[in-house]
Specification:
Helix content of chain A is 0%, strand content 10%. Chain A is low in regular secondary structure. Chain A is rod-shaped and about 30 Å long. The two termini of chain A are 20 Å apart. Chain B is of the alpha/beta class. In chain B, 32% of the residues lie in helices and 12% in strands. Chain B contains 14 helices and 9 strands. Chain B has a 9-stranded mixed sheet. In chain B, helix 4 crosses helix 6. By secondary structure, chain C is an alpha+beta fold. Helices cover 33% and strands 24% of the residues of chain C. In chain C, helix 2 runs antiparallel to helix 3. In chain C, 42% of the residues are buried. The chains are: A little secondary structure, B alpha/beta, C alpha+beta. Chains A and B meet through loops of A and strand 2 and strand 3 of B. Strand 1 of chain A pairs antiparallel with strand 4 of chain C.
């Protein structure tokens, strides 16, 4: 899947899972998706 | 803790649809041969203005960001502009699709004044002959006039939307030129065997060679929109831009002109109906709790596609394409680029595929004969 | 895209044209002007973004709400949101 991720967003990864249960290594905090990439969008 | 991909979260459903389609009317002044909603005549049970406003109120409460309004030809409803104004007023942006026949210079100027209304003009040929063969005499000219008016009014980038067929795939470059000429965005979508499309799909859908040609053309032009229509082609190589998954009941759904809610606009069939906005709890309860949508949000297996290395890329293709060609939903798309769908289609007994509903087509009348 | 680099010492706020909608995984943010859609993939990030305008600086918002080891990641997340105009300096 191609997402419109800003190259710097790739860096917005949690450096350590400690302190935030929602974050794991490698997970992106911010992920942009083009609405034009959704089925049925006019 | 395993990393959950965003797409997996989307497959599990959201509190509100991201990309809701609302067909406002089954009425239409055209009779396109492949119409996904078999439109033509208004249905006497269509939502009243008050009921439509109540739907907009619900969308506001659910914090739906925008709604894709279509039909039929939505602008033939006398309350069309009242409804889109109300929608904007309530914070729900509007993207509407039209054949352009009602977009006069005055209308274009009015539309140009709104930051929250987007317009898409449908056209299915780069010239009159190709287009009108599908959409009827005069439809090309009407669409071009609408585009001229929007451009002249300074509307900004509107969308030109094309359903790809065997006949118009050779015109890809010309569609791009058409869009470039207007500063418009080109949007190509997939023909599904839905509505009137069921009758002509076998003759109209692109050949395998044309699919490959289309895929390569799209890969070279990431700016061309597809509304995630061609994710079944992603098995050919690098994925096309987009979600690359079936969003039916998970990210998207349809509200039809009589208030019935379906998983998507291409499956107007009782099997994919979640309920009606007229039921207690309205659209909100249907989106969040209907049996159909809950079912669609359960993780599925690759089924017959499990042994194919391309399943991750194509996700088994389009549910509607499979359903209306009589193929099982847990198997290949009829236009599977590996040819698995074609092989299966041969085994589907003639006439056994689910039929689209009776629809709202204007019956063809025989002219009286002169003796 | 804003040409202003993200400065955490400045006060930031959600752009008034952006709607923020809570979801099970965090939040969805939609910019009505640019038509861009972004996923905030943690509830904490959604809270930070929603509450940004109430702090004298973005840095203060992060310090107040985010555990120390995660702060650099959150600052980068805000920088990304600034670049795509979902938040603005004020």
């Amino acid at each position: 899947m191609q997402l419109m991720t800003d190259p710097a967003t790739e860096e917005a990864q949690s450096e350590a899972p400690v302190g935030d249960e929602d974050l794991v290594e490698e997970e992106l905090l911010v992920e942009e998706i083009s609405i034009d990439g959704m089925c049925g969008v006019y | 803790m395993p990393v959950e991909k965003l797409t997996d979260q989307l497959k599990g459903g959201l509190d509100a649809p991201i990309c809701l389609t609302w067909e406002l009317t089954y009425g239409c002044n055209l009779a396109c041969i492949h119409c996904l909603s078999s439109s033509g005549r208004r249905d006497p049970r269509e939502l009243s203005t008050a009921e439509a406003r109540a739907v907009i109120d619900e969308l506001h409460d659910m914090q739906v960001f925008y709604v894709n309004i279509g039909g039929g030809e939505p602008t033939i409803r006398p309350d069309f502009y009242e409804l889109i104004d109300y929608s904007v007023e309530r914070g729900v942006g509007v993207k509407f699709s039209t054949n352009g026949s009602t977009i006069t210079a005055a209308r274009a100027a009015r539309l140009a004044g709104s930051d929250y209304v987007d317009v898409q003009i449908s056209i299915d040929g780069a010239d009159e002959a190709t287009n009108d063969a599908v959409r009827g005499r005069g439809s090309y000219a009407a669409a071009r006039r609408a585009m001229d008016h929007l451009a002249a009014a300074g509307f900004g980038p509107f969308k030109i939307s094309v359903v790809m067929t065997r006949q118009n795939i050779p015109q890809l470059d010309r569609f791009q030129e058409l869009a470039d000429g207007y500063g418009a965005q080109l949007r190509l979508t997939r023909l599904r065997p839905s509505g009137r499309g069921a009758d002509t799909w076998a003759q109209l859908h692109p050949t395998q060679e044309q699919q490959v040609q289309l895929y390569r053309w799209l890969v070279d032009r990431p700016g061309v929109l597809t509304g995630d229509s061609f994710f079944h082609l992603s098995a050919l190589g690098e994925p096309l831009p987009g979600l690359n998954l079936c969003g039916a009941g998970r990210v998207v759904c349809l509200i039809d002109p009589v208030g019935d809610v379906y998983a998507c606009p291409f499956v107007l069939h009782p099997e994919f109906k979640a309920g009606s906005v007229r039921d207690p709890g309205g659209f909100t309860v249907l989106w969040r709790e209907s049996e159909l949508f809950t079912d669609l949000r359960r993780p599925t297996s690759a089924g017959a596609c499990a042994s194919c290395g391309s399943y991750d890329a194509c996700q088994g293709g389009c549910m509607a394409a499979k359903f209306f060609t009589g193929l099982p939903l847990d198997g290949p798309d009829p236009e599977c680029v590996m040819g698995h769908g074609e092989a299966l289609l041969a085994g589907v007994p003639a006439g056994s595929a689910p039929a689209p509903g009776p629809g709202h087509s204007v019956p063809v009348t025989l002219s009286s004969r002169r003796r | 895209m804003t040409s202003e680099p993200f400065d955490p010492a400045t006060r930031w706020e959600l752009d008034p044209k952006v709607a923020l909608r809570p979801e099970p995984f965090g939040a969805l943010a939609y910019h009505y002007g640019t038509r861009r859609l972004t996923f905030l993939r943690s509830k904490l990030l959604a809270d930070v973004v929603a509450g940004l305008g109430g702090y004298d600086s973005a840095g203060a918002a992060i310090e107040d709400r985010v555990p120390a080891p995660s702060r650099p990641a959150y600052e980068r997340a805000l920088a990304s949101l600034a670049r795509s105009e979902f938040i603005r300096a004020c």
